[in-house]
Design a protein that fits this description.
The protein is mostly helical and 164 residues long. It has one domain. Helix content is 71%, strand content 0%. Helix 1 packs antiparallel against helix 3.
Length: 164
């Protein structure tokens, strides 16, 4: 004879694991990274004149039109890049604070891209203030990545077993 499968009742949702201190500090650093990106944007706009002088120092025979073109060609990517980077910092802070392992990995990929960008920026004409902020942002990212991949953080990013 056929017996129906016994029902156990509603399955309670597993309790979320609270993030460890290392993850909380990494998330705080990510918010600081977003704020620093906005600061870099303000500095890039405010130091356009020093960018102009840096261009003239490297290319003394540029005419005013060439200087203006080089200035705009360098300023526009800085502005767009700062806005995109701010959004990425905020997105990664949100996702990592929820224990998403893909976000931890993607944060490391973004840090690698930032490292490459910082390396390249040493060969591109930039204002000194912009370079300093870029190095500080890189250091913030480095500490955040170290915290995210620490042994204290690892259990938070493991998938939680479904309780039945």
């Amino acid at each position: 004879m056929y017996q129906p499968y016994p029902a156990a009742g509603p399955v309670p949702d597993p309790q979320p694991v609270p993030p460890p201190r290392s993850v909380l500090n990494a998330v705080r650093l990510m918010y600081a990274g977003a704020a620093l990106e906005l600061l870099a944007l303000i500095i890039a706009v405010a130091t356009r004149a020093s960018l102009k002088w840096a261009i003239l120092a490297r290319h003394p025979f540029y005419n005013p039109a060439q200087v203006h073109h080089a200035e705009v060609a360098r300023a526009v990517p800085l502005v767009v890049g700062a806005l995109v980077a701010t959004g990425l910092w905020l997105w990664m802070a949100w996702a990592n604070s929820r224990g998403r392992n893909w976000a931890r990995v993607l944060s490391a990929v973004f840090f690698g891209i930032n490292t490459f960008d910082l390396f390249i920026s040493f060969f591109v004409v930039r204002a000194t203030a912009t370079m300093i902020v870029g190095v500080v942002i890189w250091l913030v990212g480095l500490v955040a990545i170290v915290l995210l991949f620490s042994t204290e953080s690892a259990p938070f990013f493991r998938p939680q077993p479904v309780q039945r």
